[in-house]
Amino acid sequence: xxxxxxxxxxxxxxxxNGYLNDLGAEKVDELCTxxxxxxxxxxxxxxxxxxxxxxxxxxxxIGVIEAIEEAEGSLAFTNLTPTNRKTFEMMGLLEFAxxxxxxxxxxxxxxx
Length: 112
Fold this sequence. Notes:
Helices cover 45% and strands 27% of the residues. The longest helix is centred in the middle third of the chain and has 16 residues, at 55-70. α1 (22-36) runs parallel beside α2 (55-70). By secondary structure, it is an alpha/beta fold. It has a five-stranded mixed beta sheet, sandwiched between helices.
């Protein structure tokens, strides 16, 4: 599992690559926490290259959502596979985070 990230204005964009299990999700969590402490609270997570996400990964993402909510921020997931979208809906993640087909759409929404 690897991830890359960059700031697009005031929006943190994270791109994951590989199986999003406990180790991968912990990396996402650490990166989000680091940026939330710097008052960067609009976060886009592109999951295009992470078609597999296990239950521990999802539970850590729920913690990320809670941290972003506490910081009065916004979170968007992009490029979800149909299976991941359904899982995120069933687990309630998309009640607290938005979903976009493309990363650019989420970034534009958060910048606008």
